[in-house]
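Task: sequence design from structure.
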């Protein structure tokens, strides 16, 4: 049974170890961090999130309590009941085992039932088909494509904006 808990500084090096190649790193972060990723970079984000009531860093744990996933909830709009989930990643050695779906199910439960949100959004690059399929299986639907693109070594990546409404749980 997977569990969620707030991210801890000891998770930083573990999460960073899952993003070892530049393309996967870029798809995960849109280069908002510096490659190669370090735990210190992720922990710096935690320093800012601690005092931000609209941002939550979360770690997913497997049955033994070992971190197997991570995501960030941000831009919580308490009046509109909307929150954005991003920086979603599963341990590279654990992919294909359903952890991504389990983690998203727990994230949705947390956002909709605990935080009282009505809508979750996320952005995914159009080339990341595997992630997009996972998100769609978990009730997220595309609603927009960003006009701006992300350049990765001369290739233009489009961001597909997706949303999941509380009634699709």
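Answer:
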């Amino acid at each position: 049974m997977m569990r969620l808990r707030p991210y801890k500084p000891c998770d930083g090096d573990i999460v960073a170890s899952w993003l070892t190649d530049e393309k996967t790193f870029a798809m995960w972060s849109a280069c908002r961090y510096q490659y190669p990723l370090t735990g210190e970079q992720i922990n710096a984000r935690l320093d800012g999130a601690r005092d931000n009531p609209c941002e939550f860093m979360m770690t997913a744990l497997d049955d033994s309590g070992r971190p197997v996933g991570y995501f960030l909830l941000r831009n919580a709009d308490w009046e509109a009941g909307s929150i954005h989930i991003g920086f979603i990643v599963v341990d590279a050695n654990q992919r294909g085992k359903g952890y991504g779906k389990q983690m998203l199910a727990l994230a949705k439960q947390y956002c909709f039932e605990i935080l009282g949100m009505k809508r979750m959004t996320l952005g995914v690059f159009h080339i990341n088909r595997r992630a997009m399929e996972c998100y769609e299986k978990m009730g997220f639907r595309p609603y927009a494509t960003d006009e701006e693109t992300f350049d990765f070594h001369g290739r233009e990546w489009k961001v597909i904006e997706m949303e999941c409404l509380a009634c699709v749980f």
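The chain has a mean pLDDT of 96.
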